[in-house]
């Protein structure tokens, strides 16, 4: 990667089952045994009989982040993403002088598995039970489209840069990072807010438990995390990390061996980029501990000698937000001047490996 | 901007549509002005006042795909994989290991596997949450739509779904082209796929955006969209890679542009669309005068069409190129729409014709004079540069620009500021 093409992460925001902010995430990563907070009270009956535990973002209320007006019809996915974007904008404004025009050219790359599944199911129930459109609230129909969260963030904050949503299962947010990096390098964008979002709902939780891809000992969480991605350079904001590599690849063979081989190719490319940049891998954040794909991932990483931290143990199974939680965790835990390798395999066959080099003064 | 050293050409196209399967049948359908609109059969539409959709009747993915197990994937993934297989066959490309290692699939969608979500909803209502089918739950992850295409073709490169609603295929095509320009891949497949389903139909009905009959884009009596489905995929290839193997080149992808309204979740914004057009021109190294044809977003809702014409007037003024809507034939295929538009543009360039807007009786006088909406059937015309529109909920605008491939400088090179 040439110096001209170097991209930095200027700031991070995160809301997870561990709480709000990097400090809360760091504390939970270091002590993942802490009990998760449970489901939002209004839904509690719909979780009856569900195996395992669930944990929402504690005490999450969107009006803690934005004014009440206009929030009534927002779905939880959109609210979580909007909160993360609001925190990130506020934090970066405090650390660097970002003018209005610069914010107006900012874009978004948001990872998601399927958008707000609950919004789709609830709308469908209204259609079936109302026998047509009688019970349908047209104001909530847009919540069923997967780009709703990213577009609402743009509307709330007047971000007119490229507005995008990326779906790639549990590696969605790392796919968003690869996509956003390419947009910037190819001249389509200046600053991108990049990450992922997932809402806790009975619908998602039951789906996850019935699929049995994730072990019951892993709680089901939710959250949103975003990083501000910008070209590294004189005018840029202070960096917390550099994106040294981000490889998204695919395993067309639907076998463990195929997935291991695909992830290993992505990891090897990411490590080669790190080596070329003079970055040593000091920490690995694997994405599949506690899932059916754990062995495939471990095999692909068996030649990487560095400490492992399981991010999912701290934030729970959180779908499209997982990769973003890994990015946030890298900034939270990474030692200055060293590289953090982030990996993930999705059941679809998508694989990803990224290396962040943590800034000396992060 | 400086034109990149690596150029991207379209060397394969594949589609499954309500008016034809495969690029030849589809093109014949476009030239003949066929309508793919029919009574909804994929779900019980008896509760709705409007029961028309652009369904792909008798879609039989098993007759097209060679690799994937259809039971592993939902209907939208079937559309994507089938269109990708047809596109790859059409390209004549024999994927060697080196090409396969970096080739990937980027597919756009609006609703993903919405019919499978509908199945889960029925299970949820009938038996409660614990009775959901794990197999169906496996299918609904939207990323599967691109994964099915990459699995079908045996691709190892970057594979992802871009669910930016009704402009999604243009996002996908643009990003796939950027991968080739950046040197990350020599071959990519890109396009879009969506399936007709109950809640998209009902949702647009609740917004008052569904036509009371057939779609009539640009007509003064237009009344809305007709929801539709299908898959449309291009094989994009680096020019020298294509030339070395003597590939058939349909057209060159000159560039693309994105813009975001940041204004309203469902109402489009003309200024922002005009910005998108200008960005697409700049990225493509062309000026407005270079454009010979616009494949409109052209949904046929009262609001969309006037907003779109307002936007093109801002850029083209009185020298407005012909502009037609293939949604008049297909209905609104959602995330696949700009993929079908891309195929129509490439064939318009290759076969020198303008795709028609069917069902157009009286052009809305609000659009002003001097725009040919191609309302009297397809007609012959030299098309060197075609502009393909895709706009979406959330103000996610994306426009791709295709140019006639010339063995030398690209179309528009040297004619405009870059």
TrEMBL record, chain A:
<keyword id="KW-0808">Transferase</keyword>
<dbReference type="InterPro" id="IPR014030">
    <property type="entry name" value="Ketoacyl_synth_N"/>
</dbReference>
<dbReference type="InterPro" id="IPR000794">
    <property type="entry name" value="Beta-ketoacyl_synthase"/>
</dbReference>
<dbReference type="InterPro" id="IPR016039">
    <property type="entry name" value="Thiolase-like"/>
</dbReference>
<protein>
    <submittedName>
        <fullName>Beta-ketoacyl synthase N-terminal-like domain-containing protein</fullName>
    </submittedName>
</protein>
<feature type="domain" description="Beta-ketoacyl synthase-like N-terminal">
    <location>
        <begin position="71"/>
        <end position="203"/>
    </location>
</feature>
<dbReference type="Pfam" id="PF00109">
    <property type="entry name" value="ketoacyl-synt"/>
</dbReference>
UniProtKB/TrEMBL annotation, chain B:
<dbReference type="InterPro" id="IPR016039">
    <property type="entry name" value="Thiolase-like"/>
</dbReference>
<dbReference type="InterPro" id="IPR014031">
    <property type="entry name" value="Ketoacyl_synth_C"/>
</dbReference>
<keyword id="KW-0808">Transferase</keyword>
<dbReference type="InterPro" id="IPR020841">
    <property type="entry name" value="PKS_Beta-ketoAc_synthase_dom"/>
</dbReference>
<dbReference type="InterPro" id="IPR018201">
    <property type="entry name" value="Ketoacyl_synth_AS"/>
</dbReference>
<keyword id="KW-0012">Acyltransferase</keyword>
<dbReference type="InterPro" id="IPR000794">
    <property type="entry name" value="Beta-ketoacyl_synthase"/>
</dbReference>
<feature type="domain" description="Ketosynthase family 3 (KS3)">
    <location>
        <begin position="5"/>
        <end position="404"/>
    </location>
</feature>
<protein>
    <submittedName>
        <fullName>Beta-ketoacyl-[acyl-carrier-protein] synthase family protein</fullName>
    </submittedName>
</protein>
<comment type="similarity">
    <text>Belongs to the thiolase-like superfamily. Beta-ketoacyl-ACP synthases family.</text>
</comment>
<dbReference type="Pfam" id="PF00109">
    <property type="entry name" value="ketoacyl-synt"/>
</dbReference>
<dbReference type="InterPro" id="IPR014030">
    <property type="entry name" value="Ketoacyl_synth_N"/>
</dbReference>
<dbReference type="Pfam" id="PF02801">
    <property type="entry name" value="Ketoacyl-synt_C"/>
</dbReference>
């Amino acid at each position: 990667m040439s110096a001209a093409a170097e991209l930095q992460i200027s700031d991070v925001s995160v809301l997870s089952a561990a709480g709000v902010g990097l400090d809360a995430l760091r504390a939970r990563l270091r002590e993942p045994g802490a009990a998760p907070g449970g489901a939002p009270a209004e839904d509690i009956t719909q979780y009856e009989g569900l195996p395992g535990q669930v944990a929402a973002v504690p005490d999450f209320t969107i009006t803690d982040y934005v004014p009440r007006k206009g929030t009534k019809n927002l779905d939880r996915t959109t609210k979580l993403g909007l909160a993360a974007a609001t925190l990130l904008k506020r934090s970066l404004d405090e650390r660097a002088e970002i003018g209005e025009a610069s914010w107006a050219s900012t874009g978004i790359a948001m990872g998601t598995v399927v958008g707000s599944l609950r919004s789709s199911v609830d709308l469908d129930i209204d259609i079936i039970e109302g026998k047509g459109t009688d019970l349908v609230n047209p104001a909530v129909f847009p919540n069923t489209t997967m780009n709703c969260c990213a577009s609402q963030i743009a509307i709330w904050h007047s971000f007119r840069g490229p507005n995008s949503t990326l779906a790639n299962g549990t590696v969605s947010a790392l796919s968003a990072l690869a996509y956003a990096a390419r947009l910037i390098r190819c001249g389509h964008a200046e600053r991108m807010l990049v990450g992922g979002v997932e809402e806790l709902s009975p619908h998602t939780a039951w789906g996850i438990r019935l699929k049995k891809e994730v072990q019951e000992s892993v709680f089901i969480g939710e959250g949103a995390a975003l990083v501000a991605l910008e070209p590294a350079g004189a005018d840029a904001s202070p960096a917390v990390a550099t994106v040294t590599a981000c490889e998204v690849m695919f395993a067309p063979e639907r076998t463990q061996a195929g997935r291991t081989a695909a992830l290993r190719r992505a990891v090897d490319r990411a490590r080669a980029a790190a080596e070329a940049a003079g970055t040593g891998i000091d920490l690995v954040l694997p994405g599949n501990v506690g899932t059916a794909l754990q062995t495939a991932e471990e095999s692909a990483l068996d030649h990487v000698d560095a400490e492992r931290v399981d991010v999912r143990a701290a934030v729970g199974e959180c779908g499209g937000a997982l990769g973003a939680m890994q990015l946030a965790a890298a900034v939270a835990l990474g030692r200055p001047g060293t590289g953090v390798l982030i990996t993930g395999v999705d059941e679809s066959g998508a694989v990803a490996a990224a290396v962040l080099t943590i800034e000396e003064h992060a | 901007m400086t034109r990149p050293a690596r150029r991207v050409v379209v060397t394969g196209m594949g589609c499954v549509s309500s008016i034809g399967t495969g690029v030849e049948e589809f093109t014949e359908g476009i030239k003949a002005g066929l309508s793919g609109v029919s009574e909804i059969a994929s779900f019980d539409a008896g509760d709705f006042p409007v029961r028309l959709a652009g369904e792909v009747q008798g879609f039989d993915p098993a007759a097209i795909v060679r690799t994937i197990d259809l039971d592993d994937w939902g209907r939208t993934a079937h559309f994507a994989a089938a269109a990708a297989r047809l596109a790859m066959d059409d390209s004549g490309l024999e994927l060697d290991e080196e090409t396969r290692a970096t080739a990937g699939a980027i597919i756009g969608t609006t609703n993903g596997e919405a019919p499978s979500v509908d199945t889960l909803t029925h299970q949820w209502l009938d038996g409660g949450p614990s009775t959901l089918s794990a197999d169906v739950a496996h299918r609904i992850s939207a990323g599967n739509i691109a994964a099915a295409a990459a699995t079908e073709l045996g691709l190892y490169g970057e594979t992802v779904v871009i669910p930016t609603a009704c402009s999604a295929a243009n996002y996908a095509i643009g990003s796939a082209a950027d991968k080739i320009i950046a040197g990350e891949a020599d071959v990519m497949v890109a396009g879009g796929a969506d399936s007709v389903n109950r809640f998209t139909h009902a949702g647009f009905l609740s917004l008052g955006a569904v036509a009371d009959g057939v779609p009539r884009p640009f007509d003064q009596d237009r009344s809305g969209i007709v929801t539709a489905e299908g898959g449309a995929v291009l094989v994009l290839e680096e020019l020298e890679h294509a030339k070395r193997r003597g590939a058939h080149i349909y057209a060159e992808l000159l560039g693309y542009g994105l813009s975001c309204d940041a204004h309203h979740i469902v109402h489009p914004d003309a200024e922002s669309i005009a910005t998108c057009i200008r960005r697409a021109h700049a990225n493509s190294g062309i000026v407005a005068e270079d454009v010979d044809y616009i494949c409109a977003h052209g949904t046929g809702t009262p609001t969309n069409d006037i907003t779109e014409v307002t936007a093109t007037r801002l850029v083209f003024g009185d020298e407005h190129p012909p502009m037609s809507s293939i949604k008049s034939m297909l209905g609104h295929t959602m995330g696949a729409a700009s993929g079908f538009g891309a195929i129509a543009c490439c064939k318009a360039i290759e076969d020198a014709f303008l795709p028609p807007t069917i069902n157009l009786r009286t052009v809305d006088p609000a659009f002003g004079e001097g725009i040919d909406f191609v309302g009297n059937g397809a007609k012959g015309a030299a098309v060197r540069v075609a502009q393909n529109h895709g706009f979406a909920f959330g103000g996610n605008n994306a426009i791709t620009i295709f140019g006639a491939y010339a063995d030398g400088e690209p179309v528009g090179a040297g004619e405009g500021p870059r």
